[in-house]
TrEMBL record:
PROSITE patterns attached to this UniProt entry: MOSC
The name this protein goes by in its record: MOSC domain
Gene3D superfamilies: PK beta-barrel domain-like
Record domain MOSC: where: 17-145
Gene source species: Shewanella psychrophila
């Protein structure tokens, strides 16, 4: 079983992440108060705890998951290219997986080698489009359909 273990958003571009234990996620704003939540293929980003741990292990360091700047952290699920077009259900929320969250130069600035470590096997997570408005909570069950 997969679980939502953390929720974060960026209230201001290039500023630190804000962590919350619950959040409203809407079709019009993504994760409530997130700077990048406007409707698009990249409205919400989701990352796997297991894939993040692989990255940290490869870099021989322990970085907080927020270094990646994803909105949601899930445990018990790893993302692959085959997941594009599938529906990720988090509690009552439905997200369509639209693609890979490509690592950018900001990751290299955050930690040397991070951009390259995120590139293989979709370790940087996935981008999603919000399909319905819902409130999510840490601990919600996550299903991939």
């Amino acid at each position: 079983m997969s679980t939502l273990i953390a929720i974060g958003f960026k209230p201001i571009k290039q500023q630190p992440m804000t962590l919350v234990t619950k959040a409203n996620v809407t079709c019009s704003h993504g994760v409530e108060q997130d700077f990048f939540g406007r409707p698009s293929k990249r409205q919400v980003t989701v990352m796997s705890k297991e894939q993040w741990q692989t990255v940290c292990s490869e870099l021989n360091t322990l970085l907080p998951w927020t270094t990646r700047r994803a909105n949601l952290l899930v445990e018990g699920l790893s993302f692959t290219p085959e997941h594009v077009g599938k529906i990720l259900e988090i509690g009552e929320l439905k997200l369509e997986i639209t693609g890979e969250t490509d690592p950018c130069k900001k990751m290299e600035i955050a930690h040397a080698g991070l951009e390259a470590a995120l590139r293989p096997d979709w370790r940087g997570g996935v981008t999603c489009r919000v399909l319905n408005d819902a409130e999510i909570f840490e601990g919600d069950t996550v299903q991939l359909n």
